[in-house]
Specification:
Elements: E1 22-23, E2 38-42, H1 48-56, E3 64-68, H2 69-72, E4 78-81, H3 86-92, E5 97-102, H4 103-112, H5 114-123, E6 125-129, H6 143-146, E7 152-153, H7 162-170, H8 191-196, E8 199-202, E9 205-208
Parallel strand pairs: 1-4, 4-5, 5-6, 6-7
Antiparallel strand pairs: 2-3, 8-9
Helix pairs in contact: 4-5
Length: 223
């Protein structure tokens, strides 16, 4: 549950065989209201790029949506949260909150604030969404976001191509189980901790992390 907001998240091994629902959640006070099955949420926790655009216009014109209490109660581990800036996140964000970034916003942060973005992703989960301008369902390059430690990069599965090949290939090192440990330099702040974690238990078996070097590895893809 979300009762202890600052606890470490469970390990992938702890979550084997479980389904995780990540969504917005009704406030705790709503559960105390009698005979109410639905509550209202706003769209102010959508991806970072959308928030920036709305803040320049009129944040008072937020869209309200209904959310069933029964569904809200299923959100026990990860819930959506709005991203403001790195300083605010380091001071206030909780371990169970996931911030979403549009493709453009993620690239901008990865370029101008790469070190802070890496440190952010050592502590929190982030999700990248393809740009809304990709009306042809083309795909972004997921490596651009893996390089700064982003854990979830959304892809347009319906469109095959080199970037989907990169995406699928990334998980072949662990049998396509859907989870691969990030390089140690993207998980730890000091070399001693990174060295101690160079061998990790992945998917129930001991394996040497193929990406355990402390030297950044960047994949360049020619257009």
């Amino acid at each position: 549950t979300l009762s202890n907001e600052y606890r470490p998240l469970p390990t992938p091994n702890d979550l084997r065989g479980k389904i995780i629902i990540k969504s917005k959640k009704l406030p705790p006070s709503f559960s105390n209201e009698i005979n109410k099955e639905y509550g209202e949420i706003t769209d102010d926790e959508d991806c970072y790029e959308d928030n920036r655009r709305r803040s320049k216009k009129d944040m008072s014109s937020k869209r309200h949506r209904r959310l069933a209490l029964a569904f809200s109660d299923l959100v026990t581990l990860l819930r959506s949260a709005a991203f403001e800036d790195f300083e605010t996140s380091f001071n206030e964000q909780q371990s169970g909150q996931v911030c979403a970034f549009s493709e453009n916003a993620g690239l901008r942060l990865a370029t101008s604030d790469a070190e802070e973005f890496v440190n952010y992703n050592k502590r929190f989960l982030s999700r990248i969404s393809p740009g809304t301008w990709r009306v042809d369902s083309s795909n972004l390059n997921p490596q651009d976001f893996w390089n700064v430690g982003c854990q979830m990069v959304s892809m347009n599965y319906q469109t095959a191509g080199k970037f989907m090949d990169v995406y699928f290939g990334r998980f072949l090192s662990n049998g396509g189980c859907g989870y691969v440990l990030k390089p140690t330099y993207l998980r730890y702040d000091n070399a001693a901790a990174a060295a101690a974690a160079s061998s990790s238990i992945v998917s129930g078996r001991l394996s040497t992390n193929l990406y355990s070097s402390n030297t950044p590895q960047i994949l360049h893809i020619k257009e």
